[in-house]
## 1
Amino acid sequence: MEHIGFLSFGHWGPGQGSHTRTAGQALLQGIELAVAAEDLGVDGAFFRVHHFARQQASPFPLLSAIAARTARIDIGTGVIDMRYENPLYMAEEAAATDLISGGRLQLGISRGSPEPARQGASAFGYVPRDGETDADMARRHTEAFRIAISGAGVAEADPRYAGGATGLLPVQPQSPGLQERIWWGAGSRKTAIWAAEQGMNLMSSTLLTEDTGVPFHELQAEQIRLFRDAWQAAGHSHRPRVSVSRSVLPIVDDEDRRYFAGSALRDSRDQVGIIDGLTARFGKSYVGEPDRLAEELAADTAVQAADTLLLTVPNQLGVDFNAKLLGTVAQHIAPALGWAPAKG
């Protein structure tokens, strides 16, 4: 385990006990938590992207603000739903954010998960072409985005206004190296293989849209192995990265006990359900005393197979609580996984 980061779903609303009641609070607290995480030696600040919901929806202003307040921590998404994106505009925003950060952007993208709006991408102006599925459209947008950030020309020059230039013009700005820091959020073994063939890093969540009857961590470890095998077979020149997400809720004081001691999350079992019409296996949450959680995570085969662990944080409990949670993990749990805090 080389890297540990947090993954915030960016929830906000007036619910009982919420410390994050408005969108403005969610954004500002996201910045402050990233600053606190960097001070703790944590390696990454990642944010989920959802549309038509009280969650983070436009990540680049938030990530740019974090970049301006920090010096070392990676910033990223987990994940952007590519059905909703204008690929060239996204390429401009991603490059600008990466330049502000000094090359720290780790951009997680995917076909996306179910959203509150029926056919929400169509409200943004994006509809699958004849014969396309939503997944096909997301991959088409992804291909156009990756071409754009590679520096390839994408629009015909008008010599009258381009200083006499002809041929195809690339979008600007460009941020060299960004194309190797794109992650695909894969929900199955098949999509993990596809991501490897495309040369994208693997971002695997707390659920997989398939079930073979084995524990979640074993199925996810198989997904990671298939990804690495496909990467090697494809002959890519750069080293791939792999992240897994886990809900880790250590109990160290009365505040933690009040929130989590009686929680159903302590059931500590995988769950199987239906998502998007597919049978899905959901990984268990890790709730308890730090020494026990360290042992359980050390026995999690997918955590051991990945190089990056993203901790899903209960962001509505506020910055102080989540900084305490991250500090507990960094000090008492992560070293058992082979991790050491970043310096400087």
## 2
Amino acid sequence: MAKKRPQTKGKQQPQLTEGEIPVVGAREPCPCGSGRRYKACHGRAASHAVTELVRRPFEGLPGECDWVALRELVPAATVALTLKDGLPEGVPSVTLATVLPMAWPALRREDGSVLLGLQNETASGDISRDLADTLLRALDAEPGTPVRARRAPADGPRLQDLLDPEGPFEPVVHTGFEFWVPDAENATPEVSASLERANAAAIPTVRLTGVDSAYWCETPEKNHLRWVMPHAEERLLDALARLHAAGTSSLGEGTRLVGSFRAHGLTVPVWDLPSGVGADDVEKPAAEFAERLAAVLDSDAPLTPEERRARGGLTNRQVTLS
């Protein structure tokens, strides 16, 4: 009989810590050295993070409704962000921007300041975690360089872990994207071309001052008011239906509540406005509507047949953005 060969132990792979394990193909050996495929090892957590949808990713942040508006509705806006631990050395400011040139997720400027883009495709179901990962990498990036997209670690921090919960969130709406570069005349040809395209596509938008998170916008045929509201969806729809059935859901002559968006766990009622109605014209009507809405939001009375029909119409005209 042939002799059995002595069993020898293979060279043990060095074990990596969680933070060091890179993302590889699902069927490739896991870089941690376990001998299993990535999808059956550390890829499980990454896969779960990709598929798990966080319904309200901006919940708990100052200005949640404005986060939603800037993510989905507003073309050009910026907001100064306040970090929990203060600004790192060499970083004079951190600014959230609706979109950045070349669709960069973030940019570390020559002066060390950071611009974080909000309207970008994200790799997981948690926008907050993806943005937090981008922000951390931007803080460490070399000045004058953009930050590229990547899949955030499944156990990485979220914006709620990085931003000061007591910090202000005050969006500044711009008519164009000149805020991208301090000196637009000396921008690179690529950035200049991106700036020109973005400015041409931007819809004129104004944030109302008398109520929170309401944005007027101008389109060729008619104007609109899009108002992101923090109330629970079912209760808000009931309240809107009560006002609609009573004939008190408009913002004045020629205006009409036409439906709503659903975005990142919040509801965004939308009004059609005549083309001659500007942002200033709806400031007072919007404030008066807010008072009417507050008066019926807490009502637990059953909806009347007319109110149920009004609610059904509003629900049928609801569009989900996220």
## 3
Amino acid sequence: MAVVIDIAGLPTDHIVFGPSPLAELGAALHVLSEPGHHPARAEWAASVHCALPADLADRLCEADFLWRSTRSDILLPAVPGRSFEEDLDAVDGMSHERYVDAALEISCAALRYGPAGAGAPLTDPVDRDRALDRAAARGPRQRAFVERLLADPVPVRAWIRRLLEDCHEEFFARAWEEVRPRLAADARHKTELLKRKGLPDAMAAVSSAVSVDGTAGRLVIDKMYEGRTTALDRDAGLGIAFVPTAFAWPHLLALHARGWRPVIQYPMADPQQSRYPAPASGELLARRLSALAHPTRLRMCRTLAFAPHTTGELASSLSMTAPEVSRHLAVMRKAGLLSTRRHGRYVQHSLDLSVVARLGSEFLETVLR
């Protein structure tokens, strides 16, 4: 599974790296809503929560569908602004149809990302009812919010802008001044890599989840869903924007809505987060979960967690033939669950505890019990 962005023939000067204060505020708001996703920012989130005025906290709760599950597209500028106000002004320039479609992308299950012709809640009664039903699943306050937005977008758009401005004034301006120099430096570094070494090296520096398929002329972003768009749509704005973030780790966002310029928000390298390894690809994660789903391999995990064993030792302890054990070991090795070492003529296998620990403490505690 992946998000694919067509870039065949795209000039490199249309591949832009730059920080965006609005995108970073969106990331910070997500941290406040889901601090469990961001252990390195937990202390920051707790301090902000403690200092939030009650009225602002209440308004954030009302609109949190814009950033809780993922980020609404209105918070990911296609052209990063030089200031917070410039980013907000660009959002204000959207038509009501485009704005509402983007704002409801999260709570209304990505109508614009669906089949062609879907997603016109301002004008289509069927899409309107669908949008309200999906908003209701988030809660009565969220449904009421969407009802107001669909009834009259003008005052609700002004309300959202004022909410974001209040967040900026109350807590985000200080955070932005702290991270802005590092974000700008990261963007300059990626731009220089693109110029000097080319797109593959620049994408490798962005994330191990982003690769270049030069033969097909496309970017491939490893995600747990599928999507496709193009950076070659002149109506949407030829090009693609890469926006670094200090708050969003480990999330890698890929805006790939039809008719929108693609935007990738990627976590920059941060010493605070260096102790957290890069997440595995979706394919590798599926392989590991599949390998561990077999009861025999679970038994083997317990044995190999305590001490290294040869294939013959495993066969003897599990009352299996050596070829049967070898087949199971091959599956586990392909999933990256084993470490292997040779002692003379013996090859010993052991469970890689650092890998399985990242899959979950419950699994590790069970096999070590």
## 4
Amino acid sequence: MAALCCAVAAQGAAGCGFTARSPLHDLISQRTVPGAAELSQDAHGTARFSTVGVADIRTGRLIRPMDRFRAGSITKTVIATVTLQLVAEHRLDPDDPVEDHLPPDDSAAIRRTTGTAHITVRQLLTHTSGLFSYTDDRAFFSEFFGAGFTTHRYDSHTPEALLRTALAHRPYAPPGAVYHYSNTDYLLLGMVIRQVTGDSYADEARRRVILPLHLTGTSFPGPRTTLPAPHGRAYSAGLTDVTDLNPSSAGAAGEMVTTLPDLDRFFAALLGGKLLPPPELHAMEDTRASQGRYGMGLFPVQLPCGRTVWGHNGEISGSYVVALATDDGRHVVSYRVNSDVRPGATAETRLLAAEFCPSRDG
């Protein structure tokens, strides 16, 4: 990245100038969201980091550019990229039945479940499989997101067990009938990657994405419960500290840990055509199956000025993050809050309009 401009709006800041009220202020709340940060890079390569609030309510420490955090469902964009790289290598076809690329027991479980036969890899990528999302299971939701979190936050989960949880429920719809966002879809894509390559989705993501792009702050922690240094804290509603947890419950649907600079670099490279050939990148941006809502690991956001940007968001206990870029990857922004209390849509739209709608690209 180019030289970094820094703007801080918090007491105790040093080394950066204070800035007037920015749209970031609307993302924080004294009672629920202690801090927010944004890193943008425009078409000229000028990067700007801004932060408001604090990374740690106990010490008053500010959020720093290289702080690690949990990225939630932005993991899906990486998993989709790896899957489509395998498509480009002719090791996988989007129209293959998913059971053809799973271990025998898991293939048999899908075939036995009413309404799940003939699901394709393409339908997993576009969230049109109809499969029930394991995170919608009431018991699982309570244990990972609700009242049972304190007791179960360190529990380990295998993909096979999470798949059984999903298959215990009737599908939302027949395969290909409707769009319905489901974490089970990307859980299965992680299993497909292992079956096709012989390596885990985490190993393939490291080899194909993380190492080539020098994403030094990005990792797939597996069952590791702590965040790598440096990092701030992560909070749930009521400012409960939820920094430490076992992310195996998210797996290929949301396990990844990253930084704002790494997200900017990844989305700039992806939309800029550095990770996928044109046909596969075009497929990622094809939203016809979802009636305009979702492609393959990417979704479009239309701004008030009429401009459309592409990216993904991520939610997991203690973290909400968004990364979006222009369709050529030349202008990118990532922002996050250190809480799982999602900002209001108006506040997010205002931030994105301030970033993408002014004539900053020349």
